[in-house]
Amino acid sequence: MSGTAQDDFRQLYGYPPEGVWAAPGRVNLIGEHTDYNDGFALPFALPQRTEVAAARRTDRILRVHSAEVPSGAVTLDLAELDPERPPQGAASWAAYPAGVAWALLDAGLPVGGADLHVRSDVPTGAGLSSSAALEVATALALTDLYGIPLTRTDLAALARRAENAYVGVPCGVMDQTASACATGGHALHLDTRSLEQRHIPFGCEAAGLRLLVIDTRVRHALADGAYAQRRTSCHRAAEALGVAALRDLPHQGLEQTLARLEDPVVRKRVRHVVTENERVLRVEQLLRAGRLREAGPLLTEGHASLRDDYEVSCPELDLAVSTADAAGAYGSRMTGGGFGGSALSLIDADAERSVTRAVTDAFRRAGFAPPRITTASPSPGAARLV
Ligand code: ADP
Ligand code: MG
Questions:
Q1: Torsions phi, psi of 44, nearest 5?
Q2: What is the pTM of this model?
Q3: Which ligand 1 atom lies nearest to the CA of residue 127?
Q4: Which residue's CA is the nearest one to ligand 1's atom 11?
Q5: What is the average pLDDT across 113-124?
Q6: What share of the chain is helix, strand, coil (3-state, %, to 5)?
Q7: How far apart are CA 268 and CA 273, in angstroms?
């Protein structure tokens, strides 16, 4: 299959889809590991997106197929969706769309059977949120098909619930919100406590800048366990400091606050979260003032904080960041949960080739697999295409 999502759907199921919906992957400009601390994040949507061609069925069957998965369509009965028993093995990817149907039903919304065909150019497992793109595109398709009115914020919350409760991944709400709510040419300031959103103009191209996305193509096995551990330390630290979440700790007087914590490791974790929230606010102000280049050093500072205080980086990410910066980037950082995945680098438009080459060469010299380097401009959020 290699035509449009509509052609592929027709070929697969023998009849045309009712529509095609799309949702993008995302890059987080700044604000990492803040979304489970009620903090701030500043993601933007990627041009890469996941398309879902879909049609209603008259029964209660959900059939899902992905061009990215060779093992064929997965058939599920809506009445039997159970978060205790998500699809396994070759069908495990189907937990994402099935989880969305389950979350809709669990919220009492009148979703019925459907056939879905998925195709995507968001790389999976690269820290660019292919999972949120798949969830949000599916949620938009199902709610549109069944005439279910949901705000984009509610749609994102529902997609997150699918990932948390059905797929079993304890992610925050940033990824789904970015995919569902972002607008082209803007970054999305998200307050993960109030869910308040601000669309911040982020005109890189007009300013003669580019954003490089450096996919290291590694994902270290530590990632899931370390993520859960970091969440737990943050929640315990908030409790010890008598606040609802680390977001409530002011940046001013941080050292005195930290002195109240006995464990030096926990102190570092808290310092990352508090300084990272502050960096989000400062980057937002710089973008608003059109001083995009000046945001660069804050990205690099954020990387150092993730590397040294939060300890979620890895040699590949550190090398990508240090090499890009040494080759003239304004600033760079890992983006996403860490332990692999992607780094982001803010560069002059005419430095694209030199920075790309420098990073590629450094990876070769270090004996790392070649990174996949692309440019990204802030793109629109989820939409119906056809
Ligand atoms: P990320 O969200 O950073 O890409 P995740 O591990 O959260 O990484 O999600 C990746 C998983 O999501 C894949 O392993 C797969 O199960 C599922 N997935 C994402 N996109 C697709 C797709 N287009 N087709 C099938 N499965 C997908
Ligand atoms: Mg994901």
A1: -135, 160
A2: 0.97
A3: 3
A4: 131
A5: 97
A6: 45, 20, 35
A7: 9
DSSP β-ladder status, 61-66 and 74-77: antiparallel
Q: Which atom of ligand 1 sits closest to the CA of residue 67?
A: 24
177 lines ligand 1 (CB under 6 A): no
Q: Which tens digit of pLDDT belongs to each residue from 36-83?
A: 999 999 999 999 999 999 999 999 999 999 999 999 999 999 999 999
pLDDT at site 3: 82
Predicted confidence band of residue 220 (pLDDT cuts 50, 70, 90): confident
Tens digit of each residue's pLDDT (9 = 90 or more) over 228-267: 999 999 999 999 999 999 999 999 999 999 999 999 999 9
**What single letter denotes the amino acid at residue 361?**
D
Strand order in the sheet with 340-348: 331-335, 340-348, 209-219, 372-375
Q: Which atom of ligand 1 is nearest to the CA of 163?
A: 7
The third-level CATH classification (topology) of the domain covering 5-199 is Ribosomal Protein S5; domain 2 (3.30.230)
Active site residue 82: no
Mutate to test the pocket of ligand 1, among 121, 129, 134, 167 (most ligand atoms within 8 A of CB): 134
Nearest-CA residue for ligand 1 atom 23 is 120
Six-digit token string for 223? 């990632």
**Residue 68 alpha carbon, nearest atom of ligand 1:** 24
Closest of 62, 74, 53, 52 to residue 113, by C-alpha: 62
Q: Which residue among 21, 96, 220 is best mutated to probe the pocket of ligand 1, counting the most ligand atoms within 8 A of its Cβ? A: 96
Q: Is 125 in the pocket of ligand 1 (CB under 6 A)?
A: yes
pLDDT, tens digit, 9 for 90 and up, residues 128-187: 999 999 999 999 999 999 999 999 999 999 999 999 999 999 889 999 999 999 999 999
Ligand sitting nearest the alpha carbon of 23: 1
Q: Comparing C-alpha atoms, which of 280, 274, 258, 266 is closest to residue 311? A: 266
Ligand 1 atom 2: the closest Cα is on which residue?
A: 129
CB of 76 closer than 8 Å to CB of 160 = no
Going from the Cα of 327 to the center of ligand 2, the distance in angstroms, rounded, reads 30
Q: Is 48 in the pocket of ligand 1 (CB under 6 A)?
A: no
Query: Do 336 and 314 meet the contact criterion of CB atoms below 8 Å apart?
Result: no
